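Students often ask why we bother encoding 3D structure as a string. The short answer is that it lets us treat folding as translation between two languages. Here is a chain of 293 residues written in the first language.
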Amino acid sequence: MSAIIRFGIAGFSYPDWAGVVYPKPKPKGFEPLSLIAQMVDTVEINSSFYAPVTARSANKWTKLVEEFPDFRLTVKLWQEFTHKPEFREDDITTFKKGLERIQASGKLACLLIQFPQSFRASDMSFDKVKKIAGYFREFNLVVEVRHRSWQKQWFLDWLKQAGIGFANIDQPIFDESIEPNEIITSQIGYVRLHGRNRENWFKQDAKVWERYDYLYKREELLPWLERVKRMAEHCQELYVINNNHFQAKGLANALEMKFLFTGKIQRAPERMIQRYSHLKEFCEPMDKQSSLF
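And here it is in the second language, the structure alphabet:
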């Protein structure tokens, strides 16, 4: 078995990408996702972490990417489920509406259930994981846990039995952090690269973008590509998501990983290549029309 491997990014709608990836000002009718789908294989929808995806947004996104048959969307679960003590059953119905639209289009890869660093393994926490997974069992699921207490065989065995994927993450390493892995527990393999901005990762007054302000060096990416090769032998689809999103550093790293893995020259807007000069080695400029629309 060798998986279909998709390299991509977390989110695509960031104000700080204007003038870096997207034109500034944006012309009338410009659709960021249309441009991104020309560059990477997948996008992890992260706006869904803050609010449920509306049917309108789901329909729009799937329409924009339908011309790219191999492109997929992954969706991050609403934080009401993962970061709050309780959630209502009405929340489940609300969240599923947009998700079902994406699923019906054939573009949904999986639902990512991301828990915070503070979420430690315990009987109560495990019950919560099982409860959430049960409510969304009609979708392919991937669970991300960041606390080291979850890296136990009993938990991995349960994920395998339930057919739920394990998110292998790269993050700043502290005493209780999960370290990089290459664990496969379902047909879906998943990797998330958060950056290594150790200084701001747990800084209380840090802005969200400050935590993800990090550009990986090539020597930091190469071990992950070796893991990806090995993981691909044990699943059907493998998603490699760069979440170091500030000023599109994650997009730059995603293009670099695609190049290193495939050996194929990538494409990016000229303004982005000018911002990140190392892209000149493996990216050719998109023509002006493609980068505008």
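Translate back mentally: The longest strand covers residues 4-10. Keep this in mind for the problem set.
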